Amino acid sequence: MNHVLYPLCALISVLALLFKLRILRTDRSPTQIALLANFFFLSVTFTISTPTVWVAVSAQAGIVNLSGLLSQSTVILSAASQQLVLLHLSHDRRTAWRKATPRLVALATILATMVVLFSAATSHQENPDDFAVNHAQYYPLYLGVYLLGYTVNQVDVGILGWRYSKIAPTPWLRRGLVMIAVTMPFAMIYALCRVADIIAGRLGSSGHAWEPIAQVSVSLAVIAKTIGWTLPDWGRHLSRLWLRIQHEIALRQLKPLHEEVTRQTDCMILDLGPRADVRTRLYRLLVEIRDAQWVLRKSMHPCVAVYAEKKAREAGLEGTTLSATIEAAQLKAALQARAVGLKPHTAPSPLAAEPQELAAEIDFQRRLAHAFRRSPVVREVAAISSSRRPRTKERA
Description:
Elements: H1 2-21, H2 30-49, H3 51-61, H4 66-90, H5 93-120, H6 131-138, H7 140-165, H8 171-181, H9 184-202, H10 211-263, H11 278-296, H12 302-314, H13 319-340, H14 358-374, H15 376-388
Helix pairs in contact: 1-2, 1-10, 2-4, 4-5, 4-7, 5-7, 6-7, 6-9, 7-8, 7-9, 8-10, 9-10, 10-11, 10-14, 12-13, 12-15, 13-14, 13-15, 14-15
């Protein structure tokens, strides 16, 4: 399985490294440098862990299973880099380095111990597919020291990420940190599999049965973390894309209402042309619908809004949906009145709500358009209003 998973993790890490390299042109802060170091060490880890590369590296160095020591050492270095990122995000530079120093000293001790224990090992053949399982059985102390450093670091990164996500200044940074924090269970599954390897080795068995679980867990943790670390950079592009999609949807929903309410009014309709962006076209549509409402106010009977509110509340509507339904009923009744020449009346206001922000206005008018087309309350109110009002001849 590591023939597929580890090259995939290596590729994702390399892509993240290349993606973040461009940041160095404008930002060479410890945070960005540590993040680049994280992606570099992850790239090395999973490149070396790929079986064909594993054998080649060890053979070139002339040290059996040297790739195992290198890959596990870069895992520890990657976790240290992640700690530096989180500490510099949540503290000023001096405080961050003060808090990082004991962590770095502890990790350096772990790495030195791993090197000593690895040197004392007497492997006679390469184990690119089951290095950890093999060392759990024959050199449990080496794997135990590695697991200690790995587990403590993963827990620390998870806790730091979760804490800072609560005060992160931007939405996508917050989402990225939450994603990083929630990968901790996958890292713990990997660690537990390795502990089980050690126990199985002491009992004269091996952990080959659950090795796929360990490989899948660590791969999921790395991929999700890499996405989380880069999410603040490309997430905002998703926001812009999603906003554009929402504007396109709103434009299609509002066009039928716009055409109907402007057809019977003398409101000015601007032809913006094909080059106008979707936001501009949508904004103009909103304005023209509101203008038409005020013109149609002369054909709105004051009782329509009262009756519409009563029927809408009986139907269980409330809040913005209630206000949109009332306005839709007024519009429907006014258009019918103008179409058949009913005696005009003037309502105090055609509006039941006045959103103060563009996003709220878009949402409200989408509800208005939906109620205008589909609400049974609107149909009932318009029908009753039309049947009860006296007709009058229109003069040319």
